[in-house]
Design brief:
Layout (H helix, E strand, L loop, with lengths): L2 H9 L6 E5 L4 H12 L3 E6 L2 H10 L5 E4 L5 H11 L2 E6 L15 H22 L3 E10 L12 H20 L4 E7 L2 E2 L8 H14 L6 E2 H13 L7 E4 L7
Parallel strand pairs: 1-2, 1-4, 2-3, 4-5, 5-6, 6-9, 7-8
Helix pairs in contact: 2-8, 4-5, 5-6
Amino acid sequence: MNTTTALGTQLTDLHGQRVVVLGGTSGTGLATAQAAIGHGAEVTVVSSSKANIDRALAELPSGARGQAADLTDPGLVLELFDGLGPIDHLVFTAGEPLTLMTLHDLDLDRARQAFELRYYGALWAAHAAAPQLRPGGSITLTTGTAGRRPSAGWAVAASICGAIESLTRALAVELAPIRVNAVSPGVVRSPLWDSMSEASRDQFYRDIAAAIPAGRVGEVADVARAYLYCVTQPFATGTILTVDGGTVLA
């Protein structure tokens, strides 16, 4: 066997390891769960919706597990990880549709609600999961390129991205030797944009594709490979891995 191939297989081998994907029932979370299972992991996907869990488990290979939990409820999140027991890797991809509004139209309650899941949910999940992580384990969070390349109306979303990036670096120091990284996707064809009409969404994808070096928007499988890298790369911690087709360059 080719030495490089053998080494690559070894580095991504997750046999015997337990991976928990919060928000793992759709979009990049589901694609990440599929990728981890494909490399031998025992995967549990978590969502607040039992229906979403059932649908995801119907798509995932047999052996995948699902748990329902409201990730904005601290007590339920503690119960979740107490029930799961020892794990090796936590991936946080949970998030509602983006909260976009101009400063003129600012709704402070909506802004606080946006932080509730995407930031505080991630922070508390790390708190609850950390005691269960085995040696060699990792946490991978989710940010986005809006933190570095915001558009008008993206003040809240960009602020969340910036907060997650700072949280990633701080936890990498505090939880060491547990590794903590984050994935920063660009625009990806996913349910994140489902609140748009189909015509508006398709035009949005075309406009993005025409504006960035990659010449296309991302697919969830593209981003899942980035999460898998963060999970399996033993020398990466405090890293923000950007997978954006060159969005921050455009």
